[in-house]
């Protein structure tokens, strides 16, 4: 690890950093676009901490909690950008982000010069770099800030934020990121955060498939799945995914609030980067095929842990144990 914010990366603990102690929520006027499973709780953290936020989404019902808490609503992107000095997007696909940002009536058309666009979507590296060039020509700064750790940590304000872009831009908007997340890790230039983000997701999906196989073998032998879950958790084979998403398998809900379609998108992104760089991802590419098969079987809106249903069906045995949660909450 190389220390120092000006070198490879730095980590900010929002509870202890005094770097931005003179910056107040009132110094920012924020537009927030995309209020899905991830965007809504991220935005709620901003509203709860006193930031002035105007929001929009394809479904106004997604904004109900935010509006009740004091956020403003706009029917379009233009209204979100009006008077804003920072616009945040948290959208489900590369195409959606591209349309919202550079399409007709989009962010680049309406955000003032000197404003900052923060992209929190998991998106295509090459497209993001292209959009940075377009934004720069319009006098708009860009940061990529994908998050990792799970939707439940977004609700508690403990999610990790990975930041890529110019250091002065990061410094300027760091209070916004601190309000939404726990650990804030500056990764360096634009693109770095996107690469690491899709790698973390690839690891999670690999671990999910592995956890399903690891729990199924003892279950077929007759071991109580609860005992197996606890044994793995206490072992050298433990993982964050086992500690969290395996619980949702055992409860039968699978509801991690992350769809099979999103999983396939992220696996496609990481494998495309690997192909370009000439890095052989044997587990990553095989896991992509597993998730594509699961999507074909269970549908694009199925939850990503439902990939374990394939081995459950193959073995004619559901992995279930009493007392496990149907949804994850931060501990």
Notes on the protein architecture:
The protein is α/β, with parallel strands linked by helices and 331 residues long. The chain has 2 domains: 180 residues, NAD(P)-binding Rossmann-like Domain (Rossmann fold, 3-Layer(aba) Sandwich); 121 residues, N-(1-d-carboxylethyl)-l-norvaline Dehydrogenase, domain 2, CATH 1.10.1040. Helices cover 48% and strands 12% of the residues. Strands 1, 2, 3, 4, 5, 6, 7, 8, 9 and 10 form a 10-stranded mixed beta sheet that branches. Helix 8 links the parallel strand 9 and strand 10. Helix 9 packs across helix 12 and helix 12 runs antiparallel to helix 13. The radius of gyration is 20 Å and the shape is globular.
| Percent helix range | 40-55%
**Model regions low in confidence, pLDDT < 50 over at least 5 residues:** 1-9, 13-21
Write the element-wise H/E pattern from the N-terminal end onward: EEHEHEHEHHEHEEHEHEHHHHHH
Shape: globular
CATH architecture grouping of the largest domain: 3-Layer(aba) Sandwich
Quickly count the helices. 14
CA radius of gyration: 20 Å
Strand content: 5-15%
Structure characteristics:
N-(1-d-carboxylethyl)-l-norvaline Dehydrogenase, domain 2; 2 domains; Rossmann fold; 331 residues; 10-stranded mixed β-sheet; 48% helix; alpha/beta
